[in-house]
Structures are given as structure tokens and as C-alpha cells.
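sry for the spam today, last one i promise. C-alpha cells for design, 375 residues
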């Protein structure tokens, strides 16, 4: 019993003498749980629909639905189609003869499903109202209708009838599922996380083995040290990105509407962001345990806000935090290329931001190694 108590005392003293580890042990899970509560506590998604030149009675039915509706004249079709392409709206609804034409963005199957559920509800309610009107017309004008049919005269005006819904997809098709929409995000997340763990843990192991200390006492400059590790791990990351993408598209079946080379460029950029961040963390952490704790603090919030969860109905400050994380830009770029077939000109902004993070993390890691060398 004395031996057990002695070991327990030693472990507790280790934690008390390592306030950084103790703080991370408490703060990291609290931050993760808090983000979960904020994200999952957001209201359900409310689609935005553009009604293009619809009859007044149909507009009235749409207005009764739990949906954001923007009304446009039929001549505004080019403007509305551009809004759909820019993801400002979820669908365009217009009437052609007795068919309700519905154009959807299509990349996100969950949003498409929510939109179509609203459209179906509109059609059911509209059909019910029109049936009541038809019964009323038939009852009030039965004699006139019979006379008009007998002598070929014009019958009283009948209520509007919609016989079907025709769905047209801007991206994807009706076979796409919610998993297809999240596929590009999962690819980016897995590459980001595994590269971070590999780079961070490898450098910590080299430090504990004495390799890092021997390098720091040589004439090598800190930036050369960081660059060497970046190039070495970068080659491995490039091979990993190519193999993961090939398996995801060819074996698992994720859609890829865009250029495969651009997809590789984006995933490799995400890997470099993670790699330089891992180098920075390994320069700050003293033990492998601290690397894992810093990973929870730095990576888990990025994963939660990367696009796995829909933030369109979340608090505005959550979107601001999401915009501060590099993984969000990579995930958005991958979705644009793989699901929407975007060219590199569309994702150049996201790509530039990711490379900005690479430069910042590279410089910070270099400065950290400079400080360690002086100490």
C-alpha cells in the first residue's frame, strides 16, 4: 500500500509542477464540449427560395411555409441563376404551364432535401386549396358549365392546376447523398490531423532521443532546420495526399467533378499547413503528452468548425471563429472543386489564405527554435 501511495504522490506532483499540462488537461475538453453545445444547439436549417414570376395564389401558399422567400419578376432569371450559382439561395421555383420547375444547387443533399420537403408541402397545400376552389366553382356554376359544354361556349374560369414538379440540378444529381457532400471535408480533415500528429510526434521523439539538441548546436540556421523538416515531411504528405484521394474517388466512390490535379494541390496545401503547425507545436511542447493536448486545443475546434456541421443557422461569432481556421478554407475549396467542378480561379482566394498560414507557422516555428537554441 505504501508503494502505491508513493507512486500516486509522485504522479500528482508531476502534474502540479507542470501547470501547462494541467491547464490543457482541463481547458481542452471544456472548449470542445462548449463548441459542441453551441453548434448542435443551433436552429434547424431554413432554406432560401427564389420565386420567379409565380401566380399570386401560389406565392401566398409559399409565404405560409417556414422558409425564406425572395420574389422576382420572370425577367430576372439571369440574376437569380447567378445567385443560385453563388450559393446565396437554395432553389429557384417557377411555373411552366402546369409544371413547377425547381432548380436546386444540389451539392448539399441535406439542404436539397430540406428545400424539396418545403416544395412538396407547398404543392400539397396548394392542391388542397385549389380542390376546394374547384368544388366551389363546380357547385356554383354547374348549370353554366353544362350549357357551355353543350353549345361549345367558354366555361367559367377554373382554378390553377399544377400536375407535377420537375427538379433540375445545378450540381450533382438525385443520387448524391449527404455523405457525398461531407466526403471532401473528411478527406481534408484526415490528412490535416494525421500530418499534424506525424510531424509533431516525430520531432518530440527526436528531441527526447537527443537528435534535436545535437542539430541545434551545429552551425545550421533555424530556418534551414524547419525548411529541411518541411521538405522531408512534405514529400511524404504529397504521397499520402495522392493515395488518399485516389482511394477516396476510385474505391470509396466520392464524386470529383473538377480537375484532379487541383484537388491534389489543395490537399497538399492543407498538409503543409498542418505540417508547419505541427513543427510549431513540437517546438513549444516538452513532451509527447503535451503534443496530444495541444492537438485537442488546436485541432478539435478546427474540425468542428470546418464544415462537418452546418453553421448557416449558428451564432455569427462561430462563423467568425471558423474563418480564422485554415482547415475551413481547405474544406471549402475541396467542396468547390470536387462537388461543383470549380476551376482554380474560383478557389485562388482560399488557396492564398492557406499559404499565408503556412508562411506564418513557418516563421513562428523558426522563431521558436531560435529561442530554444539560445536557452
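last one done:
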Amino acid at each position: 500500500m505504501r508503494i502505491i501511495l508513493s507512486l500516486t504522490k509522485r504522479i500528482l506532483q508531476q502534474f502540479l509542477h507542470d501547470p501547462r499540462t494541467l491547464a490543457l488537461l482541463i481547458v481542452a475538453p471544456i472548449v470542445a464540449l462548449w463548441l459542441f453545445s453551441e453548434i448542435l444547439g443551433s436552429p434547424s436549417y431554413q432554406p432560401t427560395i427564389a420565386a420567379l414570376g409565380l401566380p399570386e395564389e401560389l406565392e401566398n401558399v409559399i409565404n405560409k411555409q417556414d422558409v425564406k422567400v425572395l420574389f422576382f419578376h420572370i425577367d430576372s432569371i439571369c440574376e437569380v441563376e447567378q445567385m443560385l450559382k453563388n450559393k446565396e439561395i437554395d432553389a429557384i421555383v417557377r411555373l411552366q404551364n402546369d409544371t413547377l420547375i425547381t432548380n436546386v444547387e444540389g451539392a448539399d443533399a441535406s439542404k436539397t432535401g430540406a428545400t424539396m420537403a418545403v416544395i412538396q408541402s407547398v404543392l400539397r397545400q396548394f392542391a388542397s386549396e385549389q380542390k376546394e376552389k374547384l368544388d366551389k366553382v363546380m357547385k356554383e356554376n354547374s348549370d353554366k358549365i353544362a350549357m357551355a359544354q353543350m353549345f361549345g361556349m367558354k366555361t367559367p374560369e377554373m382554378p390553377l392546376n399544377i400536375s407535377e414538379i420537375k427538379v433540375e440540378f445545378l450540381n450533382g444529381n438525385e443520387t448524391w447523398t449527404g455523405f457525398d457532400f461531407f466526403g471532401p471535408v473528411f478527406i481534408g480533415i484526415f490528412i490535416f490531423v494525421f500530418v499534424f500528429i506525424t510531424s509533431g510526434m516525430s520531432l518530440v521523439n527526436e528531441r527526447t532521443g537527443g537528435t534535436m539538441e545535437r542539430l541545434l548546436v551545429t552551425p545550421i540556421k533555424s530556418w534551414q532546420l524547419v525548411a529541411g523538416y518541411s521538405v522531408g515531411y512534405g514529400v511524404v504528405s504529397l504521397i499520402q495526399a495522392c493515395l488518399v484521394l485516389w482511394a477516396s474517388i476510385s474505391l470509396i466512390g466520392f464524386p470529383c467533378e473538377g480537375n484532379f490535379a487541383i484537388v491534389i494541390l489543395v490537399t497538399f496545401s492543407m498538409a503543409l499547413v498542418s505540417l508547419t503547425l505541427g513543427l510549431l507545436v513540437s517546438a513549444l511542447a516538452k513532451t509527447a503528452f503535451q503534443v496530444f493536448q495541444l492537438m485537442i486545443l488546436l485541432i478539435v475546434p478546427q474540425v468542428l468548425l470546418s464544415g462537418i456541421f452546418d453553421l448557416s443557422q449558428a451564432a455569427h461569432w462561430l462563423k467568425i471563429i471558423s474563418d480564422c481556421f485554415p482547415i475551413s478554407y481547405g474544406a471549402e475549396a475541396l467542396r468547390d472543386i470536387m462537388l461543383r467542378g470549380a476551376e482554380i480561379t474560383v478557389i485562388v482566394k482560399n488557396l492564398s489564405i492557406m499559404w499565408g498560414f503556412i508562411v506564418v507557422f513557418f516563421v513562428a516555428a523558426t522563431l521558436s527554435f531560435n529561442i530554444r537554441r539560445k536557452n
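The chain has two domains: 48-169, 177-374. ok im logging off now
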